[in-house]
């Protein structure tokens, strides 16, 4: 038992060491990811109940020669800790807006409402955030009413006054806001009334459990009916099957996103979706 304990300890130490090394590698590589052109964007369709394309969520990808494709859940928290998320977030917004202007010039389908961009709480908290957004809008000539910023519930409970002020300033620019992963955080709808919010995105964990867990059904039902009272749209994320779409529709949800319709795709396929009036 002593032996295995010692081996266990050594194994643990090796594993720790490996994690530290991997983290150091990630940090080093992340420093030059933007300048080395290692970042790119993918676009996931958002559709309405008739299967028409209403938007794309913009999702970040990082492909590094040594590390391979690093998932955003892995590197974004590190970028946030390193103070690099502002630079990366700027790159995302600028690149996505340039793509959107290209699509705008080709003519967008009537059903299309715009692109959704994930905003890190660290990025949003910067005093310069509002000016940065205006700068991107000016530089890219994007139609700001086609922008939907996805923020998280947690951001709304701290510094309510300054968060609300920034949101209202951006709202004046016609930008829209969605609450991402709704239902996983603070779940009180009361604070929502302080902010100019347009849409709630029901977290995929509720959708995943929809057919097996009656609680998820109740939660989604509650979110949908309260959103209706508050005049907010609701979009369900992580929809993976026809059955899930059907249940959500019966509850009253009219916007969807998930693998059932399409995985996130590169810009050329997204362009095809737009120009062929694809039905999902
Ligand atoms: P999120 O904002 O909740 O994005 C949804 C995630 O669910 C995406 O993962 C998407 O690919 C995945 N997804 C979409 N449909 C389905 C489905 O039907 N089933 C399942 N199982 N998954 C689905 P992804 O692209 O790996 O992004 C993970 C997270 O990384 C995002 O979660 C978001 O929090 C963050 N992220 C991604 N891009 C950005 C970005 O540009 N900026 C910031 N700040 N965060 C980002
Ligand atoms: Ca999101
Ligand atoms: Ca989400
Ligand atoms: Ca998420």
Please describe what this structure looks like.
With 280 residues, the protein is of the alpha/beta class. The protein contains 11 helices and 9 strands. It has helices at 2-31, 72-81, 85-106, 121-125, 129-140, 154-157, 160-172, 204-208, 214-229, 242-251, 267-275, and strands at 39-48, 53-64, 68-70, 114-118, 147-152, 176-182, 199-202, 233-236, 255-256. An 8-stranded mixed beta barrel has the order 1-2-4-5-6-7-8-9, surrounded by 4 helices. Strand 2 (53-64) and strand 3 form a beta hairpin. The longest helix has 30 residues, at 2-31. The protein is globular, with a radius of gyration of 21 Å. The termini are far apart. One calcium ion (CA) binds at residues 180-181, 201, 237. The site of one calcium ion has 4 residues, from loops. It comes from Marinomonas pontica. This is EAL domain-containing protein. Residues 23-278 form the EAL domain.
Shape: globular
Q: Note the beta-strand portion.
A: 15-25%
Give the % helix. 40-55%
Structural class: alpha/beta
Total helical segments: 11
Order of helices and strands: HEEEHHEHHEHHEEHHEHEH
Low-confidence stretches: none
Using only C-alpha atoms, the radius of gyration works out to 21 Å
Distance between the amino and carboxyl termini: 59 Å
Largest sheet features: 8 strands, mixed, barrel
Domain EAL: 23-278
Protein name: EAL domain-containing protein
């Amino acid at each position: 038992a002593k032996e295995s304990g010692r081996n266990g300890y050594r194994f643990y130490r090796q594993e720790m060491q490996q994690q530290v090394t991997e983290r150091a590698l990630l940090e080093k590589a992340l420093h030059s990811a933007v300048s080395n052109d290692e970042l790119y964007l993918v676009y996931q369709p958002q559709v309405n109940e008739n299967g028409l394309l209403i938007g794309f969520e913009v999702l970040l990808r990082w492909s590094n020669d040594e590390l391979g494709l690093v998932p955003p859940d892995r590197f974004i928290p590190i970028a946030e800790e390193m103070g690099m998320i502002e630079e990366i977030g700027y790159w995302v917004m600028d690149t996505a807006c340039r793509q959107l202007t290209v699509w705008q010039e080709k003519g967008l389908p009537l059903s299309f409402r715009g692109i959704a961009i994930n905003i890190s709480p660290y990025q949003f908290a910067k005093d310069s955030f509002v000016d940065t957004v205006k700068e991107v809008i000016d530089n890219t000539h994007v139609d700001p009413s086609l922008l939907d910023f996805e923020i998280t519930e947690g951001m709304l409970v701290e510094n309510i006054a300054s968060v609300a002020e920034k949101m209202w300033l951006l709202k004046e620019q016609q930008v829209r806001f969605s609450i991402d992963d709704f239902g996983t955080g603070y779940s009180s709808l009361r604070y929502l009334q302080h902010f100019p919010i347009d849409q709630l995105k029901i977290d995929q964990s509720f959708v995943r459990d929809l057919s097996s867990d009656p609680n998820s059904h109740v939660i989604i039902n509650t979110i949908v009916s309260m959103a209706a009272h508050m005049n907010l749209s609701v979009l369900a994320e992580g929809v993976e099957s026809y059955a899930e779409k059907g249940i959500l529709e019966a509850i009253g949800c009219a916007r969807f996103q998930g693998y059932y319709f399409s995985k996130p795709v590169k810009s050329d396929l997204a362009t095809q979706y737009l120009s062929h009036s694809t039905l999902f």
